Each structure stands twice: as structure tokens, then as C-alpha cells.
Amino acid sequence: MFDAVDPIVMPQSDTTVCPACGTSFKLERSNQTYCSRPCQRKASRNAARGDRSAENKQRSWKHYERAARLKEMIYSTPPQERLGMMQNILSFIPHDAGLRNILTDPELHGMPPRADSRMNIAKAANAYTQKIFGLSIGRYIKAVRTGTEPNGIAVFD
User: Fold this and answer.
1) Bridge partners of 25?
2) Which DSSP state fits 51?
3) Which of 26, 123, 132, 138 has the fewest beta carbons under 10 Å from its own?
4) Are the beta carbons of 67 and 122 closer than 8 angstroms?
């Protein structure tokens, strides 16, 4: 009757390698797989969610690639038409979460200025909304998303 159940057999060696961290450790139980509880938790989390580093790298690359294309779109437009191009880009704020993420990206806002004085898209959009509406890009996005008219103090030169 008990023949169908395989008996638990201790491995021949009393040491094994932890699949989570790769360290060698001495087995304390016959069914022990990980060297410690933290390694077991880490493996459990990764199994449940999967390793997302490749996915995150791809998402980050797409984010910054799109930011570069938007900047190129602004600066490839003749200077007299750039404000209109920026207005056109900002018209997509209510519908495009990726654009909102780019325009409010702290890393893009913290970048030092370039030698040729060209700003990245986040800084250019912030400068535009400051000049036209007297609001930062974050406040402008918030106003547009709530459906209110962005009103600040317009600063014209």
C-alpha cells in the first residue's frame, strides 16, 4: 500500500549549491533547496513575477529613444515654427501617458545644458509652459488632465 510513495532519500553529498545565490552550503534537511530563508524568498518572488530586468531595460530604452525623437522633431522644425510644434506635442498630453512620463522625467530635467544650448524635450516643454502659461510642465499637465484651463502668470518678453 505504501509502495506508491517514494521514500525521501538524503543526497549522497551533504553539501549542495544554492540555486538563488550560487554559494555552497551544508544540507540540514533532506528536502532543503536554498541556503537560507532570504534566498528562498528571493527565488519565490522571481518565480511569481519573473525576472523583469530585461523588460525594464527595454521599457527604459524606448522611453529615452522617444524623448530623443521628440527633441529631434522640435529642433528639425524651422525656428519660427517651433512654438507651434511644441503646442502640437503638448496637445497629446491628455491621451498619452508615455509623453507625460517623458515630460516630467526627473532625469531629463536634471541633465546639464548642452554646449549648443539645445534643451532636451522635457526642459524645452517646461520652458515653453513657463513662458506661455507661467506654469511648470508638471503643473501644466495636472491642469490639462483635470480639464481646467491652465492659468498662471504669462511671461512674455
Assistant:
1) 16
2) -
3) 26
4) yes
